Fold this protein.
Amino acid sequence: MEDLQPITLEGIVPQKPLLIAGPCSAETEEQVIQTATELAANGVKIFRAGIWKPRTKPGGFEGVGVEGLQWLKKVKELTGMYTSTEVATKQHVEAALEAGVDLLWIGARTSANPFAMQEIADALQEAGADVPVLIKNPVNPDLELWIGAMQRIYNAGIKRIGAIHRGFSAYGKHLYRNLPQWHIPIELRRRMPNLPIICDPSHIGGKRELVAPISQQALDMGFDGLIIESHCDPDCAWSDKSQQVTPDVLNFIVNTLVLRDESHTTESLTLLRQQIDTLDNELLEVLNKRMRVSREIGQYKKEHRMPVLQAGRYDDIIQSRVKLAMEMGMSSDFMKSVLAAIHEESVRQQIEILNNRK
Ligand code: PEP
Ligand code: MN
């Protein structure tokens, strides 16, 4: 995926950050037009609305279907905004392209399914489509599956591809509706630096009050845009009511966001980065020294027929180090994962010594 292109739509984008806003679902023509008019008045350029809604259980509102595409056409005529919707099948792709939808996105339940992704890719290719396609992360935290979904779209000849980070499902109650697991989009950025990554704070947070902080966090990490659910009357929305904000609140949120110019590398930043490089080298040397000592312990255990795993000792290490780390201002979770990784490698090396017959 070398020759990816930015998410341009003639005349307006690249916008930094790219902003897509609109209701979770198109419900009625009035709701769509009113929301779109208010968003356009606040400067939003790309409108979103779900026409086909993937619902967890049957019986809920499953979207208005093709009828809603005509409302999107009206939005375009009345406001000049570009329009976008979610597609999940060949029929959706054909109908959306036919109706002149400018940008398509693929939902999290669909990107988790390679058969569905291939069907969509084939439909785009057959139609000779040249629209930007944004691919949400699959519901499960599987980066390879996400990349694979994007590769299928890319192989269908689509060059304006973007990723949408909408968080990952987890069992039980959490602060977030979908856990952000920021390290996954960060790893995606490392692997594919040219790929635009857009954050969906509405589906990550699941609550209105989390939209602003999650958006800011995404911008701080250099995300390229935001897709935010906005409804003219959120409390009466037919889907995702607790996470939608009015166009005015959206405008307020967007105006409070601080944009950081990531490409601005000052001299002091270079110096700080040099310090990080040096510290990382020191860290590696200390780790290596620790492993050497650990191997000597392994040798001792072998000679004295002691088992490698000494649970009590490991527990003492965790308790004392975590306490120290917290006093230094680091989180206990962070320290626990670092220690777990070090211990795992230590045990692996000691077992190697044990198995060494010499
Ligand atoms: C949506 O964007 O309304 C939607 C259904 O999102 P997701 O696929 O992220 O659950
Ligand atoms: Mn939604």
